[in-house]
Amino acid sequence: MQGLPVEQIIAVAAVFVSVALLAGLAASRVLSSQTPERRRLQEILQPAMPPYGAIATDVAASRSARAGRLAGWLPKSVRDMSGLERRLANAGYRTPLAAQAVFVAMFVVPVVLGGIALFVVGWSTRNGWIAAAFGGTVGYLLPGLLLDRQVVKRRLQIRQGLPDALDLLIVCLEAGSSLDQAVVKTSDELALAYPVLAEELHVLITETRAGKSRIEAFRNLAQRTKVDDVRALVAMLVQTDRFGTSVSQALRALSHSMRTKRRQAAEEAAAKVGVKLVFPLVLCLFPAFFIVVLGPAVLRLMRAFAQMGS
Fold first, then answer.
1. Separation between Cα atoms, residue 2 and residue 253, nearest integer Å
2. Does domain 155-271 have CATH number 1.20.120?
């Protein structure tokens, strides 16, 4: 830096400052757009959920006739499609073409990944065909893995929002509302904080308004979500309806136990952090630390042994 002219030093410093300012501006934009306040304002201005019983007419109108004709040609096994539709319902996808889209992806993605692997490695060698087979296997398993991940994520969101939903139900019931009215009010209030749980409650309300009994609708909710806390809620409602006990008191006890479970799960996750940090420390930090600390001493020992040998 001492041999460089002053103009070059100023130019390099200006470039570094400009890059730092641009990076800071981009980071601030990204972080500010992900704040809870900004997210809540966006959700208020753009409601994420349709009203009760709304039919997706816009989606049906925007679907082209070609997509409908292609859906008729798709391979559809009753056993496979029924299980796939249940998994899609657990993940929150209830559109008519969701199952067909996943079914097609299970055939298209392996071909694409296998073709890419074969093109990169080369089709004239044995390794190319091995890479193509590996890519095809990964492509076949990838849609199912992504769908299972979405199911797990959705169940976690439902499990986290259920204690708050029970508290709102208790407040509405103690204020004089019926259980159906309390569920409607709870779904409206949870639309911003827990949209996944609010959506499931909307489906519950739609089923009860369509003529199903309350217990059957709650059992369908437990079947869709596959969450143990929801099953416990359904069992509790069945018992209170059968024996005529107080619903609010039972909900208060269940909410307390769910909050305790959620706190214990958070404590368990916090306790696992120390163990999980061992692997990055051992693999990333310690080698660099040993090189910096022991490197000079090792070099001196090597020079000393070389001089003694000579």
1. 74
2. no
Tell me the residue type at 5: P
**17: amino acid identity, one letter:** V
Structure tokens at 296: 């000079």
pLDDT along the chain (310 residues), means of 10: 61 68 71 62 54 41 45 42 72 76 81 82 76 84 86 86 87 85 87 86 86 84 84 84 79 85 86 86 82 84 80
Every domain of the chain and the residues it spans: 6-45, 77-154, 155-271
Task: List all residues 6 or more positions away from 144 whose beta carbon is below 8 Å from its beta carbon.
Answer: 106
Q: Are 183 and 204 in contact (CB under 8 A)?
A: yes
What DSSP designation does 283 have?
I
Instruction: Give the residue carrying structure tokens 């349709």.
Output: 50
Q: Do the Cβ atoms of 128 and 115 come closer than 8 Å?
A: no
Helix (H, G, I), strand (E, B) or coil at 220: helix
| DSSP letter, residue 186 | H
